[in-house]
Amino acid sequence: MSNKSLKHNMDMSKIVDDYLTDNPDFFLHHEELLSKLRIPHPSGQAVSLLERQVQVLREQLDGCNERQRQLIEIARENENLADRIHHLTLSLIGCHCFEEVVSALNDELFTHFQADAVELRLFSCGELDQPASTPADNPAVIAKLKAFLDNGWPFCGNLDPNQLSFIFGHSAESIRSTALVPLRCNDAYGVLAIGSRSEERFTAGKGTLFLNRLSELVSRFLQKVSLPGV
């Protein structure tokens, strides 16, 4: 097809499109055309305009139903998450010391959040600036941890073996994905680490709304209890 013919067809298509848009009752006065018009179908068979309209409406309805199903599922997940956070809050309210906070977090995160490993680490403000005084052999691990705490945002994803070993100790070998929650309590920094044996549990694309809430919640309760020396 020449460029001239192609342009002519495009112009005609535009004219027809504009006319039908401006005259939505056109087919009311030309009903016989509805049965005569044949439209190509993905299956290779031509169908009438009415059949095609029915098919399009069905596809749109299927899309709406799927979207509704997704929204209902999200609402259920959010409701379930809110219930678990509420239960965690009630458990923390009864804590009077650092050890009780750690115990409550372990109980709740293992039982209700399906965690495979939980660690809570605290550092003094100057400790992370002096890697030699920390129990880690790799200064790069401390540098990355300090950058994470300075950033102040939760992290979801995979950690390298050195980071896993520093945070989870003997449990590190079984951890495939991790959520890191930054904490701030008085003059100390902290990180709450939640590990999973599943690579898909904590991925970079996961939302961090719950982790942000957890950070605020745990930080607030740590400020109210007596902390061990850091």
CATH H level, superfamily name of the domain at 94-224: GAF domain
Based on secondary structure, the structural category is alpha+beta
Strand content bin:
5-15%
Looking at the structure, what is the overall shape? elongated
Helix content: 40-55%
What is the succession of H and E elements?
HHEEHHEHEHEEH
From the 3D coordinates, which CATH architecture of the domain at 94-224 would you assign? 2-Layer Sandwich
Description of the molecule:
The protein is built from 7 helices and 6 strands, in the order ααββααβαβαββα. With 230 residues, the protein is α+β, with helices and mostly antiparallel strands. A 4-stranded antiparallel beta sheet has the order 3-6-5-4, covered by helices on one side. It has a two-stranded antiparallel ribbon with strand order 1-2. Strand 1 (38-39) and strand 2 (47-48) form a beta hairpin. The longest helix is centred in the N-terminal third of the chain and has 45 residues, at 49-93. Residues 131-136 have low confidence and may be disordered.
List keywords for this structure.
Beta-Lactamase, 230 residues, two-stranded antiparallel ribbon
Helix and strand arrangement:
Blueprint: H1 3-22, H2 31-36, E1 38-39, E2 47-48, H3 49-93, H4 98-112, E3 117-124, H5 139-151, E4 155-157, H6 161-168, E5 177-185, E6 188-196, H7 209-224
Antiparallel strand pairs: 1-2, 3-6, 4-5, 5-6
